[in-house]
From TrEMBL:
A single GO molecular function term of this UniProt record: DNA-binding transcription factor activity
NCBIfam families documented for this protein: HTH_metalloreg
GO annotation, biological process: response to cadmium ion; response to lead ion
Protein source organism: Leifsonia poae
Every HTH arsR-type domain range: 8-102
Name assigned to this protein: Transcriptional regulator
A Pfam family: HTH_5
Regions crossing the membrane: none
SUPFAM superfamilies linked to this entry: Winged helix' DNA-binding domain (SSF46785)
Length: 114
């Protein structure tokens, strides 16, 4: 039995572009991978990822804007979780992808492949 993937729409394109943008930053990737395990408070995420609380706030705002995480108020604090149940399995699948990377390519934060 062959299944056909649904035709890509403008909405699909925009959603994947937002997901790609989220994955283009190591801190945002760390946040998504952490939240795939369990919801968390920003301060705990900042400590776990070794970034300042201001950096964490900015990155969480970006991920909220992309529609990938949601903020849940709890008293005077707010915790975060992945916004959709499909995100964690998608991240798991991406982690299974093996890419051949040329030596010297994508060293550190900058990609020199182009």
């Amino acid at each position: 039995m062959t299944t056909t993937a649904p035709a890509a729409t403008v909405t699909h394109t925009a959603a994947l572009a937002r997901f790609g943008h989220a994955l283009s930053d190591a801190t945002r990737v760390g946040i998504l991978l952490s939240l795939r395990e369990a919801p968390a408070f920003p301060a705990d995420l900042a400590d776990a990822l070794g970034v300042s609380r201001q950096v964490m706030s900015n990155q969480l705002a970006c991920l909220r804007g992309c529609g990938l995480v949601e903020a849940i108020p709890e008293g005077r604090r707010t915790w975060y979780r992945l916004a959709d149940g499909h995100i964690a399995p998608a991240l798991d699948e991406l982690l299974r992808v093996t890419l051949f990377v040329e030596p010297g390519c994508c060293a550190g934060e900058e990609c020199h492949c182009a």
